[in-house]
Amino acid sequence: MSGDQGGDDRLREFTHFRQRMNERILAEPNQVVRRFFALDTQTYQDGALDVKTKELLGLVASLVLRCDDCISYHVAQCKEAGASRAELFETFSVGLVVGGSIVIPHLRRAVDFLDRLEGGEGAAPAAQHDHG
Amino acid sequence: MSGDQGGDDRLREFTHFRQRMNERILAEPNQVVRRFFALDTQTYQDGALDVKTKELLGLVASLVLRCDDCISYHVAQCKEAGASRAELFETFSVGLVVGGSIVIPHLRRAVDFLDRLEGGEGAAPAAQHDHG
Amino acid sequence: MSGDQGGDDRLREFTHFRQRMNERILAEPNQVVRRFFALDTQTYQDGALDVKTKELLGLVASLVLRCDDCISYHVAQCKEAGASRAELFETFSVGLVVGGSIVIPHLRRAVDFLDRLEGGEGAAPAAQHDHG
Amino acid sequence: MSGDQGGDDRLREFTHFRQRMNERILAEPNQVVRRFFALDTQTYQDGALDVKTKELLGLVASLVLRCDDCISYHVAQCKEAGASRAELFETFSVGLVVGGSIVIPHLRRAVDFLDRLEGGEGAAPAAQHDHG
Amino acid sequence: MSGDQGGDDRLREFTHFRQRMNERILAEPNQVVRRFFALDTQTYQDGALDVKTKELLGLVASLVLRCDDCISYHVAQCKEAGASRAELFETFSVGLVVGGSIVIPHLRRAVDFLDRLEGGEGAAPAAQHDHG
Amino acid sequence: MSGDQGGDDRLREFTHFRQRMNERILAEPNQVVRRFFALDTQTYQDGALDVKTKELLGLVASLVLRCDDCISYHVAQCKEAGASRAELFETFSVGLVVGGSIVIPHLRRAVDFLDRLEGGEGAAPAAQHDHG
User: Fold this and answer.
1) How far is it, in rounded angstroms, from Cα A75 to Cα B83?
2) Subunits touching A (CB < 8 Å, at least 3 pairs)?
């Protein structure tokens, strides 16, 4: 029952928390963790597939694995990369059919997040890759 | 650390959020998503198995997949369909043994939710199927 | 690409393997593992819910968690407890809708297994609970 | 230890099994299951996103959920829709980074399957959508 | 978007909720559930492997299964059993590489929880095993 | 119904397949995939935790995520690093209790694999890290 309906304050708080903890984690002398974060960033860079397609791939993977933070993050990145609402909903539909009705609560929160982004009230998408 | 211990206000807020977002999603011109929602409703209708048994099946599936919103939803539907507390706990026990101790935090929130329903303070179960 | 289409020899081989390994595991001086196996057996015994309903619960949990051995096991136990083909298919439908299209390959193998059981060629269901 | 290294006979056997069981399932008088199969087909049709992108989405979802049959199926569909080897490997890389090293055994089997398809020895991709 | 950034009040609230619901569950006349809880406690006792190693095993299992409550619980138990910050980060690194980037949001919350424990502000670890 | 009971020929075939496909994958010009494989190797190196403990962590993570190839791989690495049968069974017990009865079929195959390794008939553990 985590409705994420708390609004923009909660969104800002989350964005701040993500940033602060990423810095904290990367400051730690653990090379495997740091390299993983670097690799994660590299994964979504332009290549044979463009950034938009890669972010849609990241989004559908996050949907079927049902991780709200990752879903919100990739929705924002997809928008930033130019994905339309119709493209996002088709991506949602693949996630829903592959992953089943268990995805529905995450879909509700994803659409709520998307609505806010489109309403101009949402979190500014991270300026650079920010690890889901 | 999402204890769901926030009480009835939070419950009402969640019920409202679910309803609002379902309407938002169904208003979208994406036929796959809309058909999935219709199919989800059809799944739990009376057939060779009665509604109560089907809702218990939905509950145990939600437990082992560890989706709090889905668990709460099916607990309410099971109660509505006449399941007793003992039947619900036997369903919980199957979910716990099949899914393991990772299910325990979700079980705590499920029992808390059930206690509220039985205390008469809970969310009124949705009048019709409302997509987990 | 594990089609389980190898037929009855493979079924007998699997039943024999399961039995042999269960004995091997229970002979090990690890009390937690042994108690878990005992608890697993106890879970499906007649109680507030009857054995058939509990086995259907075990089946749907196995479907959404996508474990072929567990699915076959519970299909056999459900048949043994008197579940009809229509009841099994309604249980399959709940697993399919909750778990999504990723369940389909397991559903194919489940139906193949069920067809064999009904054709009288299948594995004799275990005489007692035999741990999925 | 299911290496899928058995080669083309096994591939043909699997394709035949999939087809036979799909027919068997669709012949069953269970409307929810049949509608789910129809919806699954509809999901990958050309829309705001083209077929190739949708099949790549289906592939990455199958990778992170670790379903070999689904992975093989979507690899074949992606090839059929014109995806290049480089595009497939970038999709694999997203699946690997999002899903972790647990995906590696499935990646090995996916690449083996792709090698066969490209060697012209593989299964002919299904003429129409064939449910993972 | 459940940042768990609410601080120590939320931590105390959660610890209280966990304790209260565990008592509630164990008071229920369902022997399977009660035995499962007893077995869960037994699992982490000193044996061929010491308590610290077993708690690290519990932690990495919770990480890859992505259960925040279980992660927090095992982080506290690991600290109590003498695990150093470096040992915890190496355990995190195994969880991250095996489980993939989908683990990152849980890692952020785990490190935040660890920081609080080390700052002396955290929840007192449960005096005895307290079921994840 | 993949019993892995096929014996040593199958084991050798699998080891050969794993090696061949790893080489094939690493020969591909995809830097993200190659770096992931390098990072995977680095993860299990001696550090604050010794190799044996890290391999036990890899084993329990593989158990709860239910990947047979990964389980076999880590069982072999654990043996190589000096883990005793009792230590392996305690690791199995944590995986079983955290992951639930759905783990049992994988446990059977893990014990069968361990028996072969101890009988001297098993696959020689990979000389170097070989990616699960």
Assistant:
1) 39
2) B, C, D, E, F
Of F32, F42, F43, the CB nearest to A42: F32
The alpha-carbon gap from B110 to the nearest alpha carbon of chain F, in Å, equals 18
With b meaning 16 or more CB within 10 Å and e meaning fewer, what string describes B53-79?
bbbbbbbbbbbbbbbbbbbbbbbbbbb
Average pLDDT over residues F67-88: 97
Taking alpha carbons only, the member of B106, E46, D43 closest to residue A99 is D43
Establish if B74 touches chain C: CB-CB under 8 angstroms. Answer: no
Terminal-residue alpha carbon distance, chain E? 22
With beta carbons under 8 A apart, name residues in chain F contacting D68. none
Residue of B66, B94, B102 best to disrupt the F interface, most CBs of F under 10 A: B102
**Selection from D112, F108, F56 nearest residue C37 by Cα:** F108
The tokens for B90 are 């036997």
Identify which of E129, E116, E63, E112 has the alpha carbon closest to the alpha carbon of residue E90.
E63
Judged by CB atoms closer than 8 Å, whether chains meet at F39 and A35 is answered as yes
Instruction: Please name the residue of chain C whose CA is at the shortest distance from the CA of residue B62.
Output: C98
Nearest-angstrom CA–CA distance, F83 and F56: 8
d(CA A130, CA B129): 38
Minimum CA–CA partner of B40 in chain D: D32
C4 pLDDT exceeds 80?
no
pLDDT of residue A127: 44
Residue with tokens 């008197």: C82
Q: What pLDDT digit, counting tens, does each position of A20-74 carry?
A: 999 999 999 999 999 999 999 999 999 999 999 999 999 999 999 999 999 999 9
Q: Scanning every residue of chain D, which has its alpha carbon at the shortest distance from the alpha carbon of A63?
A: D61
For the residues E119-131, what does the mean pLDDT come to? 57
Task: State the pTM of this model.
Answer: 0.92
DSSP D1-66: ----TT-HHHHHHHHHHHHHHHHHHHTSS-HHHHHHHHHHHHHTSSSSS-HHHHHHHHHHHHHHHT
Q: What residue type is E87 in one-letter code?
A: E
Buried b / exposed e over D88-106, threshold 16 CB at 10 Å, is bbbbbbbbbbbbbbbbbbb
Q: For E99, which residue in chain F has the nearest alpha carbon? A: F61
- The partner residue sitting opposite C60, judged by closest CB among B40, B60, B70, is B60
Q: How many CB atoms lie within 10 A of CB B82?
A: 11
Residue in the structure block whose two tokens are 């290549």: A47
**Using a CB cutoff of 8 Å and minimum separation of 24, what contacts does D72-76 make?**
D72/C1, D72/D109, D72/D110, D72/D113, D73/D126, D73/D130, D73/D131, D73/D132, D74/D132, D75/D110, D75/D113, D75/D114, D75/D117, D76/D113, D76/D117, D76/D122, D76/D123, D76/D125, D76/D126
Write the pLDDT tens digit of every residue in D44-79.
999 999 999 999 999 999 999 999 999 999 999 999
Best mutation site among A10, A64, A91, A101 for testing chain B: the one with the most B CBs within 10 Å? Answer: A101
What ipTM was reported for this prediction? Answer: 0.89
C-beta neighbour count of F129 within 10 angstroms: 16
For chain A, say whether E108 makes contact (Cβ under 8 Å). Answer: yes
pLDDT at site F120? 65
Half-sphere exposure for E42 (CA within 13 Å, toward CB): 16
- pLDDT number for residue C129: 62
Q: CB distance from E35 to chain C under 8 Å?
A: yes
Q: Whose CA is closest to F54, among F80, F27, F31?
A: F80
**Predicted confidence band at F10 (pLDDT cuts at 50, 70, 90)?**
confident
Please, what is the average pLDDT of chain F? 89
Cα dihedral D59→D61→D67→D70 (10° resolution): -40
User: What is the dihedral sign for C-alpha C63, C67, C71, C77?
Assistant: negative
